[in-house]
Design goal:
This protein has 744 residues and is α/β, with parallel strands linked by helices. Helix content is 26%, strand content 21%. It is built from 18 helices and 30 strands. The strands form seven sheets. The protein has an eight-stranded mixed beta sheet with strand order 10-7-5-4-3-2-1-11. The protein has a six-stranded mixed beta sheet with strand order 12-19-18-17-13-16, sandwiched between helices. Strands 9-8-6-20 form a four-stranded mixed beta sheet, with no helix packed on it. The structure holds beta-D-glucopyranose.
Length: 744
């Protein structure tokens, strides 16, 4: 006992005096944190046995499965997404993996860990503010670390090709620039907490219906200018340690065994140095997958076999998978571990150290910044504190706010505010975070009579509406992993409820808690609509603060709200309703013309355009000039707050070619969110990524700008709200696959 104490005191003294650089003994030179990640990975790999390398490329699920006679590794955390053995003798820690993009999730069961949930990814994208995304990432990364995880399965950036996709809430919307920048900023934030983040789901996994059986058909040029561009930008901005390949096939080949996607696009063209892990159940082979670039099989027993277990060993020993390839697989895992600090700063499970109060405030700010005021006629909002009779109707607004379902579900402290709703199990439970909008509203108007009606009886709700000064109707749409929505309609009888209530009292505000775009047959009758997405663990508070004008709304839509399904490239979702094991193709015939680009191309008028979002203030744009500086297009402009309250405007720069032909009439080329006091002006300059002015050429792997005139438009949305325009002449120019200038 005594001896043990002396030794530990001694080692503490060594650690204090010398730090990691000197503590790295001669026998473990890779522990020298002054060396680069590549060198460290090379040094340690030389010492590893075949079996140790194999350990690093094989992942387990963090939960027992009786049906499959599976017991999770003892060292894993129960009800977590995954676990990979490290090599302790060489100082390489285990990998503890947790979902996902809105916080530390848990698999369903009796031992969930409670954590802080950010608002949905779509809400964060709607902030158009990379700093907010970074702050949220840093917070959930720190919570992951606090729970002993060193890998966060975040970074979802599948483009919204279909507003009915059940997982849209996890992603960044429909535009490659906005989605890539916002999700990239979140990844950077997560990794600032020394936790590896993934980027997922690679690639083109844009619907849940038949996600494991469908085959996406798309040409290389269209893919590189849409989904792949979003992933490429997020990779550049965030430098994720890992990329998760997806369930679906692309042009006939599983994404997790596509040499085109993994070896060529991701590793060769984009220079990705980290490791590719499969989605849970997305590995289908040993030799084809390993040689195509998959580095790690995840989540056994989700796959049919332990492809990267004993069969991989045999394949390496027989030379079907070269030894050098196995070294590369393990080296990539190690590279990310060294680069992102998980070796030098080992994790320990210490949830007691998590500051949930401070983290709740980070989530609150994200929600406030991303809520989108869709409509506000006759200044119905913000609500006056002098109101006497306020009706709050529907959406369980007395109890809490809705969350999205599936693997990303974060369990809140205080438990589910509305337990027992179906489905109770995967992809449920349907979860309401216990942040009650009703209570938050009541707190702000203590003298008023705030009455709640659950909305189940239309007539009773309408009666309450009639007797009130103002009506707040909450409408919800639960979406989640592994299923899509049958249509754009709000589920159940909510459309009828809103219609009845707004007929009874025209002073009706609709608050939406939805996974993504929904249709609004009642819109003409309702003067105010606030899109609150899934607003996270502080959601009720966030909604009330915006309704009462303590916070001026500044979110803008990261996706088009269509007027109807008929406007979509696929009016009927392919493969819907899902039939088990049915294989089918999904033809992305819209190519790179996703979202507003499709609407522009077809001359369609949406319900609300991409980029739309109102404020309690007014803003004007002026002084737009566009010129080429140091080879890059720059747009400079002034934004003025012409209203009476402080607020934020998202200035959006769109470019349209006047001579050349693109996949669609215009593209978002840059954006800047500006905070302005009333009467104040702000000047901003946006530099345009050349890829957003170019067409991609698959044969030469170059991006090419055509010589000609281009219209540069500064607008408040994709439909040209408040637009001012100018024309700039661009010379022909070519860029490499990553948008770097090529000498001609
Ligand atoms: C999801 C991934 C998730 C994984 C682990 C899969 O079902 O598609 O996004 O990270 O499970 O839970």
């Amino acid at each position: 006992m005594k001896l043990k104490k002396t030794i530990s005191l001694l080692s503490a003294a060594v650690a204090l005096c010398c730090g990691p650089a000197l503590a790295a003994s001669d026998s473990k030179p890779w522990m020298n944190s002054k060396l680069g990640a590549a060198e460290r990975a090379d040094l340690v790999i030389r010492e590893m046995t075949l079996d140790e390398k194999l350990k690093l490329v094989f992942g387990y699920f963090g939960m027992d499965n009786e049906g499959k006679k599976y017991k999770r590794p003892q060292e894993s955390y129960n009800q977590s997404a995954g676990f990979v053995y490290g090599v302790p003798r060489l100082g390489i820690p285990n990998l503890w993996q947790t979902d996902a993009g809105v916080g530390v999730a848990s698999q369903g069961g009796p031992q969930v860990r409670t954590a802080t949930a950010l608002p949905s990814g779509l809400n964060t994208a709607a902030t158009w503010d990379p700093q907010t995304a970074f702050a949220g990432g840093a917070m959930i990364g720190a919570e992951a670390r606090g729970y002993g995880f060193n890998v966060l399965l975040a970074g979802g950036v599948n483009l919204m090709r279909d507003p009915r996709n059940g997982r849209n809430f996890e992603y960044g919307g429909e535009d490659p620039l906005l989605a890539g920048r916002m999700v990239g900023a979140q990844i950077k934030g997560i990794q600032s907490s020394r936790v590896v983040s993934t980027l997922k789901h690679y690639a083109l996994n844009d619907q849940e219906t038949g996600r494991t059986t469908l085959n996406v058909k798309i040409d290389d040029q269209s893919a590189r200018m849409s989904d792949l561009l979003a992933l490429q930008i997020a990779k550049e901005e965030g430098n994720p340690g890992s990329v998760m390949c997806s369930y679906n096939r692309v042009n006939g080949v599983y994404a997790c065994e596509s040499s085109y996607l993994l070896n060529e696009v991701l590793k060769k063209d984009w220079g990705f140095k980290g490791w590719v892990m499969s989605d849970w159940g997305a590995t289908h082979s040993t030799i084809p997958a390993a040689n195509a670039g998959l580095d790690q099989q995840s989540g056994m027993p989700f796959d049919l076999a332990d492809y990267f277990g004993a069969p991989l060993k045999e394949a390496v020993l027989n030379g079907w998978v070269p030894q050098s390839r196995l070294d590369d697989m393990a080296r990539r895992v190690l590279h990310a571990m060294f680069e992102h600090g998980v070796v030098d700063h080992p994790v320990a499970s210490e949830p007691g150290k998590i500051d949930f109060k401070a983290n709740g405030a980070v989530s609150l700010k994200d929600a406030q910044e991303g809520m989108v005021l869709l409509k506000n006629q006759a200044g119905l909002l913000p609500l006056a504190k002098s109101l006497r009779r306020i009706a709050v109707i529907g959406g369980h607004a007395d109890k809490g706010v809705l969350a999205g379902g599936g693997s990303s579900l974060v369990y809140p402290a205080g438990g589910n505010a509305v337990p027992g709703l179906e489905p109770k199990t995967w992809p449920g439970p349907i979860m309401y975070y216990p942040s009650s909008p009703l209570k938050a509203i009541q707190q702000r108007v203590p003298a008023a009579q705030v009455s709640f009606n659950d909305g189940s009886d239309k007539a009773a709700a309408a009666k309450l509406a009639q007797e009130s000064d103002v009506v707040l109707v909450f409408a919800t749409q639960w979406t989640g992993e592994a299923f899509d929505m049958p249509s754009l309609s709000l589920p159940g009888a909510q459309d009828e409820l809103i219609a009845a209530v707004s007929t009874a009292n025209p002073k009706t505000v609709v608050v939406l808690e939805t996974g993504g775009p929904v249709s609004m047959p009642w819109l003409a009758k309702v003067p105010a609509v606030l899109e609150a997405w899934y607003p996270g663990t502080s959601g009720g508070e966030a909604i009330a603060s915006v309704l009462f004008g303590e916070v001026n709304p500044s979110g803008h839509l990261p996706a088009t709200f269509p007027a109807s399904e008929a406007q979509l490239p696929r009016p009927v979702l392919d493969g819907y309703p899902e039939v088990a094991d049915k294989r089918f193709d999904v033809e992305y015939r819209e190519g790179a013309a996703v979202g507003y680009k499709w609407f522009d191309l077809k001359g369609l008028k949406p319900l609300f355009p991409f980029g739309h979002g109102l404020s309690y203030s007014e803003f004007g744009f002026s002084g737009l000039s566009a010129s080429v500086k140091n080879g890059a297009l720059q747009a400079t402009f002034t934004v003025k707050n012409t209203g009476k309250v402080a607020g934020k405007e998202v200035a959006q720069v769109y470019v349209a070619p006047l001579n050349a032909k693109w996949e669609a009439p215009k593209r978002l080329a840059g954006f800047q969110k500006l905070a302005l006091q009333p009467g104040a002006e702000g000047k901003a300059t946006v530099t345009v990524d050349p890829r957003l002015l170019a067409m991609y050429d698959s044969a030469s792997k170059t991006w090419n700008i055509a010589k000609g005139d281009y219209q540069v438009t500064l607008a408040a949305d994709a439909a040209g709200g408040k637009a001012v325009s100018t024309v700039v002449h661009l010379e022909a120019a070519s860029y490499d696959v990553n948008g770097k200038p090529l000498r001609r």
